């Protein structure tokens, strides 16, 4: 049976609000307005591979070398995957009298002449030698997840609590570029993750300053304590990710216990749903719905494509969990589709929002891209039957009166130009992914309430703000004359604040813009957006524009 769901009356779109205060920048200000709209690129979500899903705690140098080599040989590195992340199991909790981590010399031997066995710098050097980056893993608590092993015996004290300074400095000295910090120990001790992860981030910052080596920060607290409300820029992290749910599937290691486990498509959908917090995902801070299970036992090729589409449209970290030495051609093609990857990595750094749904299970998701008028669109069919799903330009914030072109990202094919909407038949539990390129709808520009002249280091408020939709895109025009990003805390109405990073714009007279998505929970022109500078000087917020 084929359901046709294309009628406007069955469509539930985002709440449409009245637009009141309209202010235009025109005349002599027009030049300045144009530069104020210049999008400033923000750090993209990380791409790479992690050892956990396919190797659990059987990870060692041999495994990592094989995976790193495969990532280069199979074209994934060329497609943008760069991190090779060593997860739990690399260290079993031993420290020397000074508290330094003691590494198993057999699992992590010398790999080149002059190297010492039991030195993690060896494997980092190997990974770097292939042009890739290296990741490592610990826990924010005293114990780690090795206390609850999936395979093998339990180990105590596999966490960094009490050794933050020492451990993160050690990771940076070994040369690691990325660290994932788990929460098994923190959870057991009932620690406060917002406090603990801020401490970790500060220790990472000091390790970076001491070594000059960047260590990307991945928080793994499974979304239990709403990390999207505190994790962006936690402890001053310049860019970071945080898990929003548990694992899609426990490890599947061939020839080991539980080797018959299967990843499931409902598990993939559930993690996708739990990862949607667009108000927190901006300027280099990302929700993390877990390592991908693309290519692992349990999913069909079509389900792998949907999985990759869901991660890309939500700008999730693209971290593969499958064994890279045994990928099928179909799985490799899914991992390396450049157009789908480009959606994930787009320099606006925004997450998709659900812009329309039909009944139970037919959904339209839209992710704004850095090219004006471009949207990545996902038509998702969660039902048991094939169905036609329509995407309307007006739901994407594009003008209805101009035609838009549609490109199918999996077929890699231009489908033509269409007026006001496009419909596609989507199979049961499947998705279609497009780029729609039309004309931007109107944004309403607001200048700060009561402020004149320079607004550096002061709170800046925009009052009487309205939006077309409840979750609306906001362009923030600013200048940052400093060399480093500057941070401001944004509070919308009475909501929990979020920290926004403003990259350098070059000078005080060169404006630029970053985009965020905010929740306008008051109807009409009754919303208030207040920005408080956290680090300065150098940041001046000049205007905002709201869809
Ligand atoms: C947690 C994380 C996983 C993995 C394991 C290691 O469960 O969610 O991604 O790191 O710990 O034990």
| Strands ordered across the widest β-sheet | 9-8-7-6-5-4-3-10
Mean pLDDT: 93
Q: Tell the overall outline.
A: globular
Give the N-terminus to C-terminus distance in angstroms: 38 Å
- The helix-and-strand class reads alpha/beta
Stretches where pLDDT falls below 50 for ≥5 residues? 1-9, 15-29
Work out the helicity level: 10-25%
Spatial extent as radius of gyration = 24 Å
Describe the protein in words.
It is a single chain. The protein is an alpha/beta fold and 547 residues long. It has 12 helices and 26 strands. It has helices at residues 30-36, 52-55, 61-73, 76-79, 121-129, 164-174, 184-188, 193-211, 265-274, 301-313, 329-336, 338-345, and strands spanning 3-5, 11-13, 47-50, 83-85, 133-139, 178-182, 216-219, 240-243, 285-288, 318-320, 353-358, 362-368, 374-381, 387-392, 404-408, 413-418, 421-426, 430-437, 444-446, 460-465, 471-480, 486-492, 498-502, 512-519, 527-533, 539-546. An 8-stranded parallel beta sheet has the order 9-8-7-6-5-4-3-10. A 7-stranded antiparallel beta sheet has the order 2-11-12-13-18-15-16, covered by helices on one side. The protein has a 4-stranded antiparallel beta sheet with strand order 19-26-21-24, with no helix packed on it. Helix 6 (164-174) packs across helix 8 (193-211) and helix 9 runs parallel beside helix 10 (301-313). Mean pLDDT is 93; it is low at 1-9 and 15-29. The chain binds alpha-D-galactopyranose. The site of alpha-D-galactopyranose has 8 residues, from loops.
């Amino acid at each position: 049976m084929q359901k046709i769901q294309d009628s406007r009356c069955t469509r539930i779109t985002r709440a449409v609000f009245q637009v009141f205060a309209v202010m235009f920048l025109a005349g002599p200000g027009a030049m300045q307005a144009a530069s104020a709209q210049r999008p400033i690129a923000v750090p993209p979500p990380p791409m790479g591979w992690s050892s956990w899903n396919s190797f659990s705690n059987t990870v060692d140098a041999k495994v990592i070398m094989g995976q790193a080599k495969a990532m280069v040989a199979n074209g994934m590195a060329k497609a943008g995957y760069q991190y090779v992340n060593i997860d739990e199991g690399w260290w079993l909790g031993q420290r020397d009298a000074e508290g330094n981590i003691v590494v198993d010399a057999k699992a992590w031997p010398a790999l080149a002449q002059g190297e010492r066995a039991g030195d993690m710098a060896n494997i980092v050097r190997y990974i770097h030698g292939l042009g890739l980056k290296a990741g490592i893993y610990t826990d924010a608590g005293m114990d780690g997840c090795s206390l609850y092993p999936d395979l093998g015996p339990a180990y105590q004290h596999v966490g960094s609590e009490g050794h933050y300074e020492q451990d993160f400095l050690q990771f940076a000295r070994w040369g690691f570029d990325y660290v994932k910090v788990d929460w098994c120990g923190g959870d057991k001790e009932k620690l406060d993750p917002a406090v603990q992860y801020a401490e970790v981030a500060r220790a990472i910052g000091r390790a970076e300053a001491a070594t000059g080596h960047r260590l990307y920060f991945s928080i793994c607290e499974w979304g239990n304590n709403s990390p999207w409300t505190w994790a962006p820029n936690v402890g001053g992290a310049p860019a970071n990710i945080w898990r929003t749910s548990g694992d899609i599937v426990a490890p599947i290691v061939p020839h080991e216990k539980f080797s018959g486990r299967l990843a499931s498509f409902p598990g993939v959908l559930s993690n996708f749903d739990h990862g949607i917090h667009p108000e927190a995902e901006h300027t280099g801070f990302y929700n993390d719905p877990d390592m991908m299970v693309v290519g692992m036992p349990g999913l069909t090729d079509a389900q792998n494509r949907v999985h990759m589409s869901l991660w890309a449209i939500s700008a999730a970290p693209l971290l593969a969990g499958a064994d890279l030495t045994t990928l099928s051609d179909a799985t490799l093609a899914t991992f390396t589709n450049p157009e789908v990857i480009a959606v994930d990595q787009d320099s606006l750094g925004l997450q998709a929002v659900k812009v329309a749904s039909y009944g139970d299970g037919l959904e339209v998701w839209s992710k704004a891209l850095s090219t004006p008028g471009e949207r990545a669109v996902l038509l998702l069919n969660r039902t048991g039957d094939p169905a036609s799903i329509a995407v309307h330009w007006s739901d994407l914030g594009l003008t209805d009166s101009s035609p838009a072109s549609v490109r199918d990202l999996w077929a890699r094919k231009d489908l033509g130009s269409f007026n006001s909407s496009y419909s596609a038949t989507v199979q049961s539990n499947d998705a279609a992914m497009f780029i729609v390129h039309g004309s931007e709808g109107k944004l309403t520009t607001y200048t700060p309430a009561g402020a004149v002249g320079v607004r550096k280091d002061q709170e800046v408020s925009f009052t009487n703000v309205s939006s077309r939709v409840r979750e609306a895109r906001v362009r923030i025009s600013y200048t940052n004359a400093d060399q480093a990003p500057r941070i401001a805390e944004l509070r919308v109405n009475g909501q929990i604040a979020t920290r926004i990073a403003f990259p350098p714009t070059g000078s005080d007279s060169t404006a630029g813009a970053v985009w965020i998505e905010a929740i306008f929970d008051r109807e009409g022109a009754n919303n208030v957006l207040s920005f408080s500078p956290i680090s300065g000087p150098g940041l001046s917020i000049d205007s905002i524009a709201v869809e």
